[in-house]
Design goal:
- The protein has one domain (2-185): hpI Integrase, Chain A.
- The chain has eight helices and five strands, in the order ββααβββαααααα.
- The chain has helices at residues 17-25, 31-43, 84-96, 110-121, 134-147, 152-159, 164-170, 176-185; strands spanning 2-5, 11-14, 58-60, 66-73, 76-81.
- The chain has a three-stranded antiparallel sheet with strand order 3-4-5.
- It is globular.
- The model has no long low-confidence stretch (mean pLDDT 90).
Amino acid sequence: MKLEETDSGYYRCWLSETEQEQMTEHYNESPKKQLALRLMLFSGLRVGEVPNISKDSIETTDANYDLLTVVDGKYGTRQTMITPETRNQIRTIANTLELSQGDPIIDVAKRTVQNWVSQAAESIDHPHADDVSAHDMRRTWATRLVHSGLPSDIVMDWGGWDDHGTFRDHYWSLSDAQVAEQLERADII
């Protein structure tokens, strides 16, 4: 886990791959809870957007990848990427529960989702595990995509950000090794 203390004394957290696995595996026996975490960790949803997802939120593009339409997000409707595993989990839960089009997959309050994140964070063996928030899962998603080489403009579009400065300052964390790698790619060092 990478930590950054803010001026107000709380921590921004970026979860390692192992910690992400530990949190999602914490809910192996509870598919809805696991899906809520996956939507934040692997699609960048805000905690308040998780209850807005239904089985008809998934769209396959002409290029054969899936997008998730997030309705009533913080700034309106947007689309974000969705992994095949998360897509399949949405469909499985919807079919198992015999949900109709438009019925929310995870029909709980925002606070409930936040509690699920806190409970799953307890499975992480780290002294700051209790500092992990739902927002840190979104932060981890954005940083992982940028670090993987996806252009920040695409990540910002998927995540619903329009201010590059805010995105860079609060979500995108670069290590010295990553900066050095980019400098080498640009043939500067």
